[in-house]
Amino acid sequence: MAGREPTPFGLQLPGYPWDSMAPFQEIAARHPDGVVDLSIGTPVDPTPALIREALGAAADAHGYPTTHGTLALRQAVSAWFARRRGVPGLDPQDILPTVGSKELVAWLPLLLGLGKGDVVVRPAIAYPTYDIGAHLAGATPVASDSLADLPQDLRDRVRLVWINSPGNPTGEVLDAHQLRSIVDDARALGAVVASDECYGELGWGRWDPAGSGSAVPSILDPQVCGDSHELLLAVYSLSKQSNLAGYRAAFTAGDPALIASLVNSRKHAGMIVPYPVQEAMRVALGDDAHVEEQKDRYRRRRARLLPALREAGLTIHGSDAGLYLWASSGKPTWETIGRLAELGILAGPGSFYGDAGEGFVRFALTGSDERIDAAVTRLVGASR
Q: Per-residue pLDDT tens for 297-344?
């Protein structure tokens, strides 16, 4: 219509938070010994040979892959859940491969049919994509670690509850009792619980089965959910444990009705994991040795970096599992980020993860051994 201002095209989403790191990247890049990038947490170690071989062997993928995934892949996921996550007897029909886990996190509220007036609850300190997913669906994101603490008008509108255990960025783990409490409360509201468990194999201390610890529990564990997966989805990624971030290899499993609905919607939308990646996932899930080997690398890096951070005046909080050390210097987040950048070290700003993350920074364990050693040297040297 004449005289009417045209509506702009594009989704009206917040700016991508990591773009604000550019000035600090420039500062860190001036360090004579180069940058130590412990910010985003992308894997730096090689993808295991047996997985690359499986990808190559499946490269003649001339036909369309199935959205639901091959039966062989889903059987491998089921066997892995039983062997590694304490979830026996998971029906392969109730499993769905996804194009990485971030894709599912971002689109799940929309695919579940959520919209205006619906509430999506996520942890107080959390991965920003939980909020983005709510915005994409037109729903309302709410930061809370307890459904019981929400006012009644919000509780009545809760349709999806995100759990992240082990948590990113805090590394905190919810035990089976805590998970059960959330599941019971959400089910009473008729809300779906989606549990982002992608760091589940990376427990430390009391959560490290290689020592005297216990395995991190899954939301699908009978101790948590009883004999039913109703209203529950476990979300998992192979990016961390198998160095497959570049493959976009992940899956979700749980409530049969929810999985069937997701499969149907994703068929319509063409959201399909390529067949060679499905084969790589199948092989990766059947081999525990490479997972233990990679975890040993992270265990050694963590053992070197953690005391150096403390010596540099940072206090470590949580960090019981996962790929990160969650730390505070007692100063505002960006002041600490600036101080680290002067040392040529990049960390993740805690304020990216919600208001409750202000004052914290996140260090990834995904530097190479040489870069972790460089960070240790700089941190210890700066403290003297």
A: 999 999 999 999 999 999 999 999 999 999 999 999 999 999 999 999
Task: Please state, in angstroms and rounded to a whole number, the distance separating the CA atoms of residues 233 and 168.
Answer: 18
The stretches of 120-173 forming alpha helices (DSSP H) are 129-137, 152-155
Find how far residue 321's CA is from the centre of its chain.
12
Helix 101-111 / helix 129-137 crossing angle, nearest 10 deg: 30
Q: How confident is the model at residue 212 (pLDDT cuts 50, 70, 90)?
A: confident
Query: Given its phi and psi angles, is residue 61 left (phi above 0), alpha (psi -120 to 50 degrees) or beta?
Result: beta
């690398």: which residue's tokens? 297
CB 98 within 8 A of CB 118: no
Task: Give the DSSP H/E element, type plus range, for residue 253.
Answer: strand 249-254
Torsion sign over Cα 278, 283, 284, 288: positive
Average pLDDT for 217-222: 98
Q: With beta carbons less than 8 A apart as the criterion, state whether 107 and 129 touch.
A: no
Q: What is the pLDDT of residues 272-296, one digit of tens each?
A: 999 999 999 999 999 999 999 999 9
> How high is the pLDDT of residue 3?
64
Element (H, E) at 24: helix 22-29
CA distance 362 to 39: 7
Residue closest to 70 by CA, chosen among 276, 372, 334: 276
Q: Tell me what the mean pLDDT of segment 258-263 comes to.
A: 98
**Cα–Cα distance for residue pair 19/203, rounded to 1 Å:** 30
Q: CA 362 to CA 346: how far, in whole Å?
A: 9
3 state DSSP class of 82: helix
- CA 191 from centre of chain: 21
Mean pLDDT of 223-252: 97
8 A C-beta contact, residue 363 and residue 302: no
Residues 6+ apart with CB under 8 A from 26: none
Count CB-CB contacts under 10 A for residue 329: 18
Give the per-residue pLDDT at 86.
95
Distances from the Cα of 1 to the Cα of 7, 9, 10, 94, angstroms: 12, 17, 20, 50
Q: Which of 191, 203, 201, 139 is nearest to 163 (CA)?
A: 191
Q: How far is CA 294 from the centre of its chain?
A: 17
